[in-house]
Structures are given as C-alpha cells and as structure tokens.
Amino acid sequence: MTTTTTARTSLPRRLMALVLVFMLVGGALRSVEAGCQNSLKLALHNVFLCGVISYAVALTGVGLIFAVTSALSPHRHWPSRAELKAMPRWAPFGGLTGGAAIFAMITVASSVGVSTFNALIIAGQMLLATAMDHYGVMGFPRRRLTVQRLAGCVLLIAGSYLMAKY
Predict the structure, then answer these.
(1) Which among 150, 132, 153, 128 is positioned nearest to 141, based on CA atoms?
(2) Which residues cross the membrane (predicted)?
(3) Residue 32 and residue 51: Cα distance in Å, rounded?
(4) What is the pLDDT of residues 68-91, one digit of tens each?
(5) Cα–Cα distance, 140 to 150 (Å, whole number)
(6) What is the pLDDT of residue 135?
(7) Contact 102/30 with Cβ under 8 angstroms?
C-alpha cells in the first residue's frame, strides 16, 4: 500500500475524448450484454449453462484479438519467470469476479430491469472503487476520499434508488 497521493496523469485533449467515448461505448455495451444474457437464459432455461457459454464466447473473442494483435505486433513483451513469480497470487483471479458479475446479470437483471441492474452495479462499483482508491490497494495509486468524491457516490446511490423505485 502506498502512502502518498499520486497526481492523475493528464492526457492530450483528443486522446482523453477518445478514452471517454471508449468508456461510454463499453458501458453501453454492458446493457446489450444484459440483453444477450437474458435472451440466452430464456432460450436455455439454465443459468449455469448460460454462464459457461458466455465465458466460452468471451474467451474465443479475446483469443482472436490476441492472435491478431500478436501477428501485427510480434515484438510484444512476454513476462519472464521472475516477473511471473513476483506477480501477486491473487492477480489472475479477476475473471472469477467477472464471472460473479455475469451470474448476477443472468439471474437478476430481468427481474429488476436492465437500467436498475446497471445503476446498482455502478453504485456498488463506485463504493468499492472509492475505498480502493483511498487506500491505494491492488497496485492503484492512492487518491484520497474527498467531499466531492463522497458526494458523487451519494448521488450515484440516490440515482440507483430512483431507478429502482420508478
């Protein structure tokens, strides 16, 4: 855990605009994902099989992207044994948390609606992310909790409540 606050790296304006658009598209695709998961669940009547199929398709897609980028850029860095040994043992398990999120999406999004589901997912992400930033855990730079950041979390929770209620 780091004890100093790290300043945010500033990107050129055009690159930052591209990054923001990329994040918005990625967020929008989460709603499409929820629709795909719900359709899969309705067709198969088996949430576990839906999860397996979903991850198999994701693995295939990532494998294809990896193959194409490796072919286009063959001089990519591969980790050494020392780098692999130095890696935290918990680092590869991010996929399990993604699996939990997929399982939640498959089982409950249709019950509460995709907008409420996403609002609550985002609120949960922000609460934990704010704590992770504050303490600078898991390799992230420390960004102290401020009144403004706390207000953002409160507004997200309030928005999630409004999405769920109405």
Answers:
(1) 132
(2) 44-69, 147-164
(3) 16
(4) 998 998 788 889 999 999 999 989
(5) 19
(6) 96
(7) no
In whole angstroms, give the CA distance from residue 42 to residue 11.
44
Tens digit of each residue's pLDDT (9 = 90 or more) over 5-35: 445 567 788 888 899 899 899 888 988 998 9
Mean pLDDT throughout 125-149? 93
Structural contact between residues 54 and 107, judged by C-beta atoms closer than 8 angstroms: no
Angstrom distance (rounded) from CA 110 to CA 42: 10
What is the domain partition of the chain in residue ranges? 28-73+94-111, 113-165
Distances (CA, A) of 73 to 61, 65, 76: 18, 12, 6
Which phi and psi (to 5°) does residue 46 adopt?
-150, 105
Task: Tell me the three state secondary structure of residue 142.
Answer: strand
Determine if the pTM surpasses 0.85.
Answer: no
